[in-house]
Amino acid sequence: MTRFRNILLSVLTLSVFGLLAAACNNASTGEPSVQPSVEISQSAESKESAAPSAEQTRTVHDAVGDVVIPANPERIVAPYVEDALVSLGITPTMQWSLGSYVQDYLQPYLKDVPFLDFTDGPNLEALLAADPDLIVLYTTNLAKDGGYEQFSKIAPTYAFEDATVSWKDTLNTLGDIVGKQKEADAAIQAYEDKLTEAKAALKPYTEGKTFAVIRIKPKEFLLMDGTYYSGPVLYQDLGLKPHPLIKELSWDYNYPFSLELLPDLDADYIFLLVQGETARDKANELQNSSLWQDLPAVKNNHVFEVDISYWMAAGAIAHSKKVDDVVRLITQQ
């Protein structure tokens, strides 16, 4: 790949063309969001001369089509899929960031890994300098409007439709790609074993109870449903019962709601996700409301603020930490 990088650098043409179409989950969610902000041009001749031999590659099918990837990739950049790589025992070459915002829960595993900043679109100059031999896109939103071609000029690129929907499928896919299926199986089994213990511990406290997750952004409150991140863990894996208001209101993975709806949210337990210090004023507005103070969960001290860095993430590590939080917070009342 060093030869590939040198050739690519010799023909690199940069032209800033601004921010392209935003993905469904953008900077407001703390997820990778936009297309590359720098255009990369490379001659077909130089790309062909840099290509590895057939014996060193394999063809796989991703959400975009067939892609030729290294048979044994070693320098992998997978923004917002680092949870899966770490679960497989792999340290990525770069890690996702949004300015100073990073995936805090993964930093013990990634403390020396440089950041790939997505503030104004992925920093392709930094990505190029990192010399990856495989790039993994967590969503096809990053592949739209020429994005896939831009990434592919740097290194072979594998695109998921949406890697956050089923972390197990994502882990199995990556395990196959990097030759670590045993590690993928072990991580999934460890999570299943944790669930068995957690459900037994929670049953005396949660049977017949209802739950809700509120995400607080700087300018709005969102009621999370069961589609992404926290929902699958609480309502599917742990078998907890979502409050009826969640199903009535949620049309996507979260639903904006106003303080006037609070009297209807009489869930037994509520988890709060405060999206950074910029959302703290909004959180105070909620918690200082008389409507909030009248909620059963508030009166019974059944409201818990949790770490948004992994409650708004998907993967074996993130989901395991959610399970640990739920068991600890509910059983130690």
Q: Can you walk me through this structure?
A:
- It contains 15 helices and 16 strands.
- The chain is α/β, with parallel strands linked by helices and 333 residues long.
- The N and C termini lie far apart (55 Å).
- The chain has 2 domains: 2-179, Nitrogenase molybdenum iron protein domain (Rossmann fold), CATH 3.40.50; 202-331, Nitrogenase molybdenum iron protein domain (Rossmann fold).
- Strand 11 (210-216) and strand 12 form a beta hairpin.
- It has helices at residues 2-10, 44-50, 82-87, 107-110, 124-129, 147-152, 167-178, 181-206, 230-237, 244-249, 280-287, 290-293, 296-299, 308-311, 316-331; strands at 15-16, 38-39, 57-61, 66-70, 76-77, 95-98, 101-102, 115-117, 134-137, 157-159, 210-216, 221-224, 241-242, 254-257, 269-274, 303-306.
- Strands 11, 12, 13, 14, 15 and 16 form a 6-stranded mixed sheet that branches.
- Helix 1 (2-10) packs antiparallel against helix 2 (44-50), helix 7 packs antiparallel against helix 8 and helix 8 packs parallel to helix 15 (316-331).
- The model is unreliable at 1-29 and 41-49 (pLDDT under 50).
